[in-house]
Specification:
This protein is 23% helix and 22% strand. The longest helix is centred in the C-terminal third of the chain and has 17 residues. By secondary structure, it is an alpha/beta fold. It starts with 9 loop residues before the first strand and ends with a strand. The chain has a 9-stranded mixed beta sheet, sandwiched between helices. The model has no long low-confidence stretch (mean pLDDT 92). Helix 4 packs across helix 5. Bound molecules: S-adenosylmethionine.
Length: 260
């Protein structure tokens, strides 16, 4: 079993989250904020090619080809969540019904947020809506941590562009490394509402470490798990830079290659 109190304040594990989840103690996490594979690669019509810009990655990535079901996540999420905890899961349109079916009976409340992307991929054929919204399902039990601000700021709707420019993590050729990197602005908003300082935020599909950056910036503890080495390495570099910027000298960072 992982001793959560012995982990570094911000810890990233390069492993399969299903084996890590089994080693997490009961009631040990204050906020599960994660972005699992979406199961949408199956609907893809392939990448969109342009002469004047890089291809738009429409078939997402290999990690999205392996189906992941909400029922694979729910029992462990329920077990590791503290009684005051919250769960937020990024979710594609095709999965919302399944998340509701599996999570709603197990928690006091099930809600969702809509992220409106202000800069979605254009539709040059003008043949359908733009794909400009993404869903985030959320659930909790009575007594959960909830930092309500004012009515205006508590709509379950958030507007923010997809990651661009300096925020986007690049590979050695200067191309975007991760096709679904999430904006830190959204993650910070969720973390601020649904957790307190020093709480443990857990992201078991952590990609290039966006939730880790948001948690560090808001003075939360963080535990992330990412299976792909190149994303794990990029997160390591990213979180070290954030640590330097925040002037905690990297003392609080821990990077683990597979749990024993
Ligand atoms: C939707 S992406 C998350 C992107 C992340 N929010 C970010 O901003 O970088 C899902 C990630 O889960 C990872 N993944 C898929 N299956 C996994 C597993 N069983 N254990 C850990 N990570 C996994 C993929 O490699 C991918 O990076």
């Amino acid at each position: 079993m992982i001793d959560i109190n012995k982990l570094n304040r911000c810890t990233l594990i390069n492993d399969n989250c299903f084996s890590v989840l089994k080693q997490m103690p009961d009631n040990s996490v204050d906020l599960i904020l994660t972005d699992p594979p979406y199961n949408i690669a199956q609907y893809s019509t392939g990448n969109i090619h342009f002469d004047w810009r890089s291809d738009i990655n429409n078939d997402l990535a290999e990690w999205d080809l392996k189906p992941l079901k909400p029922i694979d996540l729910m029992p462990e999420f329920k077990r590791i969540l503290s009684p005051t905890g919250n769960i937020f899961i990024f979710c594609s349109y095709n999965m919302i019904g399944e998340y509701h079916k599996v999570f709603d009976p197990e928690f006091d409340t099930f809600q969702f947020m809509v992220w409106h992307k202000t800069n979605p991929v254009p539709n040059f054929r003008k043949s359908s809506f733009l794909n400009s919204c993404e869903l985030i399902v959320s659930c909790w039990n009575k007594g959960h941590t909830w930092n309500f601000t004012n009515q205006k700021d508590m709509h379950n709707f958030i507007e923010c562009g997809i990651c661009m420019g300096k925020e986007r993590i690049k590979d050695s050729e200067g191309k975007s490394l991760h096709p679904t990197q999430k904006p830190v602005e959204i993650l910070k908003k969720i973390i601020s509402i649904a957790s307190d300082k020093d709480d443990l935020v857990f992201d078991c599909f952590s990609g290039v470490g966006s939730t880790g950056e948001a948690a560090m910036r808001l003075n939360r503890r963080f535990l992330g798990v990412e299976i792909e080495k190149r994303y794990f390495k990029a997160s390591e570099n990213r979180l070290k830079l954030i640590s330097d910027e925040l002037k905690n000298g990297g003392n609080n960072l821990g990077f683990i290659n597979e749990m024993a």
